[in-house]
Amino acid sequence: MGCAISSRKGKLDGNRHDVDSKGSIKPSAFVAENTNRLTDIYKLGKLLGSGAYADVRICYLKENGAKRAVKIIKKQSLSGNNIRQKIENEKEIIKSLDHPNIIRFYEFFEDAKKLYIIMEYSNGSEFFSQILQNESYSEIQAAKIMYQIFSILSYLHDKNIAHRDLKPESMLIDKDTLKVIDFAEASVITTRISQKVGSLFYSAPEVMFGTHTTSCDLWSAGVILYILLTGYHPFSGINDDETLKNIKNIKYTTTGKIWNQISSLAKELVSLLLCDHSRRISANDALHHPWILNFTQIFSPETPIISSALENLKHFTNTSVLRDAVHFFLTMQRVSTGDIKILGEVFKKIDKNDDGKISKQELINEYTNTLGVIQAESEVEKIMKEVDTNNDGYINYTEFLKAALDIRKMLSIENLRAAFRNFDKDFSGRISVLELKRVVSERNLLSHKTWTEILKEVDLNCDGEIDLIEFEKLVLMKGQAETEENADDKN
C-alpha cells in the first residue's frame, strides 16, 4: 500500500481519471536530451551517408547492443545567426511526431561542435537511390508510395507543420514501406511566410518567389509523383536558371510517348499538385483522389495479428500515472522494429481516413465485425478512457502501440531497469518527486503536493523516494495480476 493510508488509495495511486488531463503523458516526454557523452552510451559504427551539414552512422546501444542510427549535425555548417533556434526548432518538431511512416526518434546528445539525433535504424535503402535504379514505376507501385507520402503530409499539415524540403533523399524505403527521416527545414506555419528553403528541384514557385504555407509540400509531392511515373524531372532545364524559370512559369508536359501509357486519373492528380497554390489540392484530398483509391492495395495484416492487437486493446488498463509512464518509455525505447512494423500495419488498417490517428468511430467499426454494434460501442467507450492518455478524443500511434503490444513481452527485468534509469536522472539509485515530475509531466502542471502523494503509493519504505525494488514491484506485480486476469477472461 505504500505510505498512504488505505482510505486514500483510490485517489493517491495516480489514477489518470483523478489526475486529469493536465497530468497526461505524451510520447514526446521520452524523446529527451541525454546529458551523457554519446560515446558513453553508444558505440559508433559505419557511415551510412554524408551530406553538407550532417552525417548518418550506425550506432549500437552499449547496454544491450541494440542497433540504431545517429544523425550527426555539424553546427558550424548551419547557416545564419540563429543556429540555436534552428536546432531547438528541429528538436521540438521531431519530439512532436508520431506516425507509422515517420522514423522513430529516441534521444538527443549535444556537445560544443555537434548535435546528435538518435533514431530508428531501418534496413531500407534511400528512396532516391532506388529511383535511380528504376527508369519508372508502374502506376500501382507509384500509388502505394504516394499514398504513404500523402498520409504523412495530411498528418503534418493537421498539426500546422510544413516539411518544406520533401524529396526522395529525405526518405527511406524498405520493400513497400516508406519512412521520412529528415525534418531539418520543417516549420510550424500558421500564416503565409517568406523564406527560401528546400531543394531547387522540389521547391514550389511560391517558396522561391513569394510566400508559402503547408501547401508547398504538395508541390514537392507532385514532383515526386511525376518522377515515379516518367523517370525524369518535370522542370529540368539545361541549367539551374532555366529550371528556376520553368518552375516559376509552371512549365511541364504530360504528353508524349511515356504519357500515352499513363492513365488520365494519374495525369489529373499531377495537374492538381503541380499548379498555382490557389488551386492546389490538400494532402487529405490527394489521399482520397480516385487514382490513389483505384490503384492502392493496402497491405492487410493477417487476421490473427489483428485479433490479438484488438484483444490487447480491450484488456489494457491504465491504473497508474507511473505505470503508464513506464509503458510509454518501453513502447518508445525498447520495442523491436519487427513488432512495431507489424502493429503499424494494423494501425493503418484501422485508421480508415489515413489521418494518422484512430477515431472512436473507426474503432467501433473494427469491433463491430466480431461483437455487434451495441457491444462494440460499449467496449470502445472503455478503451478510449484507458488508452487515450492525452484525452484528445483519438488514439494516437504510440498510444495504440502501447496498448496493443503484449505486455508480457515488455516486462523483462532488463527493460524495467532501463526504464528506472530513465527516471533516475541523477543516477542516485532512487527516483525523487522532482525527477518524477521532470519525466512524467512535460509541463509540470500538476502540483508538487500531488506528485508527492502519487509517489507515496509505491514508496514502501517511506523514505520519500522510489528505489529499484519498489519500482519493479509497482510494475511487475500489477502487470502479472493483469496478465492473469486477462487470461481468465479469455478462458
Automatic annotation (TrEMBL):
ATP binds at residue 75. Residues 10-20 have a biased composition (Basic and acidic residues). Residues 1-20 are annotated as: Disordered. Keywords: ATP-binding, Calcium, Kinase, Metal-binding, Nucleotide-binding, Repeat, Serine/threonine-protein kinase, Transferase. Residues 338-373, 375-410, 411-446, 449-481 form the EF-hand domain. SMART domains: EFh. One of its GO terms (molecular function) is protein serine/threonine kinase activity. This is non-specific serine/threonine protein kinase. It comes from Stentor coeruleus.
